[in-house]
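Exercise 7. Given the encoded structure of a 229-residue chain, write a plausible sequence.
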């Protein structure tokens, strides 16, 4: 009950402004390339390689690299380059322990605080997830999951949760993309995301929280199946 009460606080006087800058765009483009393994785990690259891959100047790319390093996707090696970090299933399991409680907050906050315009966008994403499930489109699932997470961050309006989610979500997406062709049914996770997006759009915080928990549980089972296969 305390959590629900806190989510009902009027935040109109402390509106959260989503970041919008070249660094932000560079970050998202590089994150996607790393998640989709265009820069494979273990690869040593340079700042110039990253800049040329997305057509951005050095300054926004340098800042994006620092953020990607904080998110556990890169390791900056002084005078040696930048290493794309390896995939670690046990580390992902530990990440999911942290993510469980955070996702509950994200689900409830988004369901309660979303604007009418954002609810329409959640409904649209729900339809897209259903379409992706029918097509069994792995790349589209990864990209739409990122859009869904970003919309949740906007809807909940909490910059601190935003920072935490940025440290957790890309690692899971990359691991999932790397292994999903060998283990699991990609259609199931797409349908689960569609259901979660639909419940947030409807403003049902309890059901939305349960839907998010089912996604975390599914991801945990997926990672365990990779470890023990």
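Solution.
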């Amino acid at each position: 009950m305390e959590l629900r009460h806190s989510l009902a606080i009027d935040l109109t006087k402390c509106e959260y402004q989503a970041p919008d800058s070249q660094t932000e765009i560079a970050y998202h483009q590089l994150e996607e390339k790393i998640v989709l393994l265009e820069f494979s785990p273990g690869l040593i690259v340079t700042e110039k390689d990253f800049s040329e891959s997305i057509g951005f100047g050095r300054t926004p790319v340098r800042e994006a690299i620092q953020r990607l390093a904080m998110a556990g996707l890169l390791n900056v090696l002084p005078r040696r380059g930048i290493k794309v970090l390896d995939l670690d299933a046990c580390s992902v399991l530990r990440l999911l322990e942290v993510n469980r409680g955070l996702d509950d907050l994200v689900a409830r906050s988004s369901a309660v605080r979303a604007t009418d315009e954002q609810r329409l966008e959640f409904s649209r994403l729900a339809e897209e997830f259903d379409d992706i499930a029918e097509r069994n489109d792995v790349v589209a699932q990864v990209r739409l999951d990122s859009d869904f997470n970003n919309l949740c961050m906007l809807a909940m309006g909490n910059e601190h949760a935003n920072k935490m989610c940025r440290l957790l979500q890309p690692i899971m997406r990359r691991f999932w993309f790397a292994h999903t062709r060998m283990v699991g049914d990609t259609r199931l996770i797409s349908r689960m995301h569609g259901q979660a997006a639909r419940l947030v759009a409807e403003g049902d915080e309890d059901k939305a929280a349960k839907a998010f928990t089912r996604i975390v549980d599914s991801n945990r089972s997926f990672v365990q199946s990779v470890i023990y296969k």
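Remark. The CA atoms of residues 97 and 217 lie 10 Å apart. Students should compare their own answers with the one above.
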